[in-house]
Structure formats: structure tokens, C-alpha cells
Amino acid sequence: MKSAALFLALVLAAPAVAPALAHDGPHAGPAAMQVSRATENIVLPDISVTDQRGDSQGIVSRYADAGPVILSFLYTNCTEVCLMTQATLSVVDEELKTDAAPLTILSITVDPRRDTPEALAKAAADIAASDRWDWLRATEADTPVLLSAFGLD
User: Fold this and answer.
1) Residue 123: is it exposed, middle or buried by C-beta count within 10 angstroms (0-12/13-18/19+)?
2) 86-121 pLDDT, tens digit each
3) Which terminus of the chain has a lower count of CB atoms within 10 Å, N or C?
4) Backbone phi, then psi, for 118, in 5-degree steps?
């Protein structure tokens, strides 16, 4: 019975092993990664946003000349993907602290009722966000409009 089970296991494994046995030697290294730059023009309404310091201004007025912007959406009570996104952006922020490149990171809350400037400031402090990273909230009425402008209906 043991030999029948071994034979059956070998027969079942053969299709997976055959390509490896047919391997014809070393192959060239991985292909070079193709890098391209994608841009999308987004027309935003100049909705007033308030940052983690309590400063308010229209989002377009404030960031129109900011240069490249990395944008994320979050809510501070999120316990899953938001934390991973913020951790990833934290690494980017840390790596760029010594870089003179003009880059702004924006995290916009989707929960302005709970995410007060104080809650946003705490979240920013918890991950040691630099001054290049603004944590923003619009009013409850303007948040859906702002999200829609980014294609998040």
C-alpha cells in the first residue's frame, strides 16, 4: 500500500517537476523595468480645507504651486488599510527628509466629523510626520464634493 501511495504521489507530482527537469540552463537576468510617468489633470473646486494645525485655506489656492503631491485618503479610526498606507507614506516622508525635492504629502480625511484638527495632529505626531505632510479635513458638507472631484464617488 505504501508503494502504491508513493507511486500515486510521484505521478501527481510529475507534471510540476517536468518543466524543471526540462530546464535548459541559465537564462538572462530579469528584464529591465519599464518606468513611465502618468499624469492626470484633475479640476478641483477650491474647497476650504483645514490642516492639523487648524489653518484653513482653499485646497487649490494652497497647493497649486506646491509641486509634486502624493495624496491619500484616510480616517484616523481606521484600523486596516489606512494604517498600511500611512506607514508606507511615513517611509517615503522619512526617506525624503534630506532631499531638497519639492514634494508635498496630503492625507485627507473621509470622516471630518471625528477627524478634528486635533485628531489629525495626533495621527501626524504618532508617525512623526514631517512639515511637508499635511493632514486635511473639509467640512462634512464639502467632503463628498472633494472626494467626487478626485473620482471617489
Assistant:
1) buried
2) 888 898 888 887 766 778 999 999 999 999 999 999
3) N
4) -65, -40
